[in-house]
Amino acid sequence: MSIFSVFVGGIFFKLQSTSINQTTIQRFMSLPSLADIKKTLITFSMGLVLLFLGCAYVGLVCYATFHDCDPMSTGLAKQRDQLVPLLVMQVLGFIPGLPGLFVSAVFSAALSSLSTLLNSLAAVILEDFVKPRMVKPMTERTVAFTMRAVVVVFGLSSIGLVYVVEKLGMVLQLSATLQSSLYGPMLGIFTVGMLMPWVGEKSVFVGSIASFLTMAWICVNAQIANVTGSFRHTKLPVSVENCSYEFDMGRYLNSSIEYEPTSGSSIYHISFLWYTTLGASLAIILSNMATLVFGRQNVAEVDENLLAPFVQRYIKRHRLQEYEIVGLKKQEKSKSNKQNSD
């Protein structure tokens, strides 16, 4: 993972999570006007930058604290996700109540995000799968029961999957990988729909399916490479020279010998932050290539409200030029007919 992938790939990754994410759009739609949505998005972006800077700062503090006594090498931490809680206990554990406050804040943030996702999922299942198949209109009591049942089922499923996810490596990387494999092609679909009115629905369908299958293949093989250890990222230099607690020195020697970073020459070895960019690019390119088979869509039949503002202006100018040309042709034809009649 490089600085370039963090800033460029990370921008596209957050673009898909804010522009086409159903939970985010649901929050935006609850605001009274478009101006309020823009203000909220600007405030959200500023807060997001501060959050990422804070995460980077925490990472630097972790390395500065543990570089001469690496918990991963001594076995004190099993996963890199455990380094931040270990840092809190080591640096701030002497303050009464502060570790508990940290744990409660982590759980609060996780549960708030999970509750939003579960509510959005329940709304989608109710509106798109349950209601269209009902013969009679659903009562409010039935709607409430259905949504609660969906939340309970998927909530229990999420708890059960915790035991599976912990075996698959870093939680952040796994979550970002799964999101990117889905939202990357979806970002390409929305980009084509808003900016490329000549691409028809069949072309977009073929391009998005091909992009999704390609990204799924890349993500699965990349995750297998990480879990099996066939690909390993370069680590910052660490040691155990200043450790004040006892540990198995043989474990450290074995881990330092076994760990050999491999060069990322395969497409499976690219940073997970590039998955969204790659998936969206594949969807856009393949959709345009599919127009060679299915043909171009008539731009005049496209609803202008579904297009980006600058694309709307281009289409209006294009149509105005067509109308002027047609009008001139009609005038010339009428003049020629009048001269012939004279």
TrEMBL record:
Q: Does the keyword Transport apply?
A: yes
Which PROSITE patterns does the record associate with it?
Answer: NA_SOLUT_SYMP_3
Q: Where are the transmembrane segments?
A: 41-63, 83-103, 142-165, 171-192, 204-224, 272-294
Membrane topology (UniProt) = Multi-pass membrane protein
- Which of UniProt's keywords are assigned here? Cell membrane, Ion transport, Membrane, Sodium, Sodium transport, Transmembrane, Transmembrane helix, Transport
One GO biological process this protein is involved in is: sodium ion transport
What protein family does this chain belong to? Belongs to the sodium:solute symporter (SSF) (TC 2.A.21) family.
Name assigned to this protein: Sodium-coupled monocarboxylate transporter 2-like
Taxonomic placement: Eukaryota, Metazoa, Ecdysozoa, Arthropoda, Hexapoda
